[in-house]
Structure to design on (830 residues):
């Protein structure tokens, strides 16, 4: 429920044991290795060096190979993993089994080789098809493609653009000479092809006559036999290639069975990569190496026990105040607040030795989400959906957090839905109205069914109540944020700051509320307003005192005006921002009720259909809206009051897998 | 002027409001989803497996059209057009209804286009390069969505009190 206490580790060990030690650390998963602050170019540190990066390169190559093979399998033999399929399980020993890894690399090689062969066949086939296309226009000619004619009457293969009139060309040539003949062969999309048989003496005038038609020679070098014969040959070869490609594809598909092995090996390769990357943060001497890092204080015993098995010397110390900015941050939470670490991490990590905002934020997050969603039907769907997914797919990490979070928010939605009497909006009221069913419960003035009991309030009829309620929720959250800040300031020895800032503002805000609101409450003692005024004045006095003391000069007397302006506008806009609670609550109810009404105009069956589609859509929109806006209120309005960010997340050298679920063994 | 409006009648003024609410919102949504669709085709030609992510992002600016329809429908319904006995509207009533429709007309139209830009950028930047982070793009779009929601709430509140 807090930011975990960290300790600094400095370790000297022998190089021959390095690999084994790093593996043991990775398995333990509790040490983040940092680069020691040693400038290797400094002559004082001569003789020290960084470990070689060869291992990292090798691991990256292997990972690339394995991922490439998985990609190929994804294309040719898609996996049939459902959304709800849990990851396969494996022990660490299985993950790091060298023989399986070698098998996996071999299988990956096979897959990639087969894919390359397939690609080569496809390229060859494409080439043959182009050749076939170039021969196709000649297929009607019963003339060998290498026909050159005789020395006196040569034969030429020619083409003209498809737009040219062949009859006009023939007429032009006929006019120029009688010693030439054109035989049209065929055409493709751009050109029409023909054979020119011409006595060599007439060739000049013939060319002259053809020039305006942009005729050109076609080279068919390398072919023997007629076009039709060649096309038949090409067809045979293409068919053979297709068969071979089919076989190659079947070969890849058959390797689909290796997918699980490949996936496990991808995971193994990423462990190798992370270990090798961490290795590069060490500093070597000839025989030993130095490691600098951080570990959670609670893991110290575990680590020392493990290190006892190695020839090494180490020092584990509490961080000094100067080191605080460097200390990595690990958040520790109970099952209810843990799902919200994802949100804090997305925002920013808190600085070391400050508060973990999760436990403070989680209740508000759940409460606000439910307030905006406020529907029993939607809440039940959320609870059932997430519970089903958690039970069936057994997700880990981010997905598990997300699902647990929506589960809790779903419960909160049901709670608020009970207060407003909303079940898929006014679905039941419309249903009973259409079917004419008379159901006991709370009825409105016109006698129409509203809900099984009298709703405490409804977003559409009690807009003002909802508006005031939203702002009250906002004031509560802002006050809690200020209280946290006060506590932190006292803990860090700045009570003066706390008194002249947060406490002064408490006085101003509460005092104003009492002074203005007190007399408006019927039957309240008149002294209430006076008390409010006194408290307000106290706050107004405290504020400039703080500014003067902080700036230690008379200038503070001027800056306090600015502070006051900032404070007033800040509190005002922050609290108004909570009106989004009202807006989303209303929008959800209105859209649900519009859909329920839309279908009901046309009868019972359209009503049910439109209500199902419309409410599904509304649920999805609301999930997004409520999530984004409750998050915004936490991150901006709430965190802004006390949060000190600036920490870096704790990233220990550990086994982190994507495709398998590691079963923890006892060390 | 007064004579002109009296000739037109309150009902027609209300209909101008509803028509523009539905029509402008649909124009906005069409533009928004269109932009995202264009961006998505580029990404999908290279990585067809991201179809679902692109589709979710594309659907987001589509909600404004729905809000416009919801506002128009809500108006028609409260005026009693579906129960067969529409309320008689004075020119003043009609004007009030027409103005009540302004927030969703403009808010829906412009927010759908703005949201379409964000979603299109999310498709071409986030989905193409870091597909696992696409939810962040969705969240960014959610922020824009809020202003369409506010417009809708504003219009509905005014419609409720206009009658």
């Amino acid at each position: 429920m807090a930011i975990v206490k960290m300790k600094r580790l400095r370790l000297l060990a022998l190089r021959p044991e390095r690999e084994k030690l790093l593996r043991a650390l990775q398995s333990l998963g509790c040490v983040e290795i940092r680069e020691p602050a040693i400038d290797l170019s400094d002559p004082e540190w001569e003789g020290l060096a960084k470990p070689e990066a060869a291992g990292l390169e090798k691991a990256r190559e292997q990972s690339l190979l394995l991922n490439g093979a998985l990609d190929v399998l994804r294309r040719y033999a898609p996996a049939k993993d459902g959304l709800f399929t849990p990851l396969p399980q494996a022990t660490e020993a299985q993950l790091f089994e060298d023989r399986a890894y070698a098998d996996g690399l071999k299988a990956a090689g096979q897959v990639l080789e087969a894919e390359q062969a397939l690609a080569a066949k496809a390229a060859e086939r494409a080439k043959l098809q182009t050749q076939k296309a170039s021969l196709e226009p000649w297929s009607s000619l019963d003339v060998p493609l290498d026909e050159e004619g005789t020395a006196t009457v040569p034969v030429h293969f020619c083409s003209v653009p498809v737009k040219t009139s062949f009859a006009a060309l023939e007429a032009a040539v006929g006019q120029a000479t009688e010693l030439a003949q054109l035989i049209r062969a065929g055409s493709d999309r751009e050109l029409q092809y023909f054979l020119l048989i011409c006595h060599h003496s007439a060739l000049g005038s013939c060319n002259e006559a053809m020039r305006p038609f942009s005729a050109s020679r076609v080279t068919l070098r390398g072919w023997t036999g007629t076009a039709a014969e060649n096309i038949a040959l090409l067809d045979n070869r293409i068919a053979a290639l297709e068969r071979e490609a089919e076989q190659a594809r079947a070969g890849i598909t058959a390797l689909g069975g290796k997918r699980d092995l490949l996936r496990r090996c991808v995971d193994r390769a990423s462990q190798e990569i992370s270990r090798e990357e961490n290795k590069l943060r060490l500093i070597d001497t000839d025989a030993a190496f130095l490691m600098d890092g951080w570990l959670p204080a609670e893991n110290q015993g575990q680590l020392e026990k493990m290190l006892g098995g190695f020839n090494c010397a180490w020092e584990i110390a509490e961080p000094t105040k100067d080191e605080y900015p460097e200390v990595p941050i690990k958040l520790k939470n109970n099952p209810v607040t843990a799902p919200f670490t994802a949100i804090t991490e997305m925002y920013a990590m808190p600085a070391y030795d400050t508060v973990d905002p999760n436990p403070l934020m989680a209740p508000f997050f759940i409460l606000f989400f439910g307030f905006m969603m406020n529907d029993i039907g939607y809440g039940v769907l959320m609870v059932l959906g997430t519970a089903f997914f958690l039970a069936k797919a057994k997700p880990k990490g981010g997905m598990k957090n997300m699902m647990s979070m929506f589960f809790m928010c779903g419960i909160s939605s049901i709670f608020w839905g009970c207060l407003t009497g909303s079940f898929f909006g006014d679905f039941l009221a419309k249903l009973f109205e259409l079917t004419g069913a008379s159901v006991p419960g709370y009825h409105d003035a016109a006698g129409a069914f509203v809900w099984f009991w009298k709703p405490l309030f409804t977003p559409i009829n009690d807009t003002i109540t909802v508006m005031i309620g939203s702002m009250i929720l906002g004031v509560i959250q802002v006050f809690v944020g200020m209280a946290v800040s006060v506590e932190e300031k006292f803990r860090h020895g700045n009570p003066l700051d706390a008194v002249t800032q947060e406490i002064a503002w408490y006085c101003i805000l509460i005092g104003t509320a009492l002074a203005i609101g007190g007399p408006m409450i019927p039957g309240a003692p008149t002294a209430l307003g006076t008390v409010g005024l006194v408290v307000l004045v106290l706050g107004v006095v405290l504020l400039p005192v703080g500014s003067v003391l902080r700036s230690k000069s008379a200038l503070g007397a001027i800056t306090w005006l600015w502070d006051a302006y900032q404070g007033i506008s800040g509190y005002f806009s922050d609290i108004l921002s909570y009106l989004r609670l009202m807006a989303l609550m209303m929008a959800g109810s209105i859209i649900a009720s519009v859909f329920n009404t839309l279908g009901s105009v046309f009868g019972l069956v359209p009503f049910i259909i439109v209500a199902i589609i419309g409410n599904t859509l509304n649920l999805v929109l609301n999930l997004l809206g409520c999530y984004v806006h409750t998050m915004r209120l936490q991150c901006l309005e709430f965190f802004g009051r006390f949060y000190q960010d600036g920490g870096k997340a704790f990233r220990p050298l550990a086994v982190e897998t994507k495709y398998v679920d590691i079963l923890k063994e006892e060390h | 002027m007064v004579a002109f409006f009296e000739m037109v009648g309150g009902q027609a003024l209300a209909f101008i409001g509803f028509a523009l609410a539905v029509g402008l919102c649909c124009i906005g949504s069409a533009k928004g989803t269109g932009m995202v669709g264009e961006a998505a085709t580029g990404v999908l030609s290279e990585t067809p497996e991201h179809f679902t992510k692109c589709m979710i992002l594309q659907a987001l600016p589509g909600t404004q059209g729905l809000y416009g329809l919801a506002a128009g429908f809500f108006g028609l319904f409260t005026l009693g057009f579906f129960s067969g006995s529409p309320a008689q509207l004075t020119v003043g009533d009609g004007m009030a209804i027409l103005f009540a429709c302004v927030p969703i007309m403009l808010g829906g139209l412009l927010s759908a286009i703005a949201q379409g830009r964000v979603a299109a950028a999310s498709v071409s930047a986030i989905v193409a390069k870091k597909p696992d982070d696409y939810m962040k793009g969705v969240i960014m779009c959610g922020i824009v969505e809020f202003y369409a929601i506010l417009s809708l709430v504003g219009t509905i509140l005014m419609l409720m009190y206009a009658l």
Remarks:
- The longest helix of chain B spans residues 10-46.
- The two ends of chain B are 24 Å apart (CA to CA).
- The helical segments of chain B are 2-8, 10-46, 51-59, 63-78, 91-100, 102-129, 134-162.
- The CA atoms of residues 39 and 120 of chain B lie 6 Å apart.
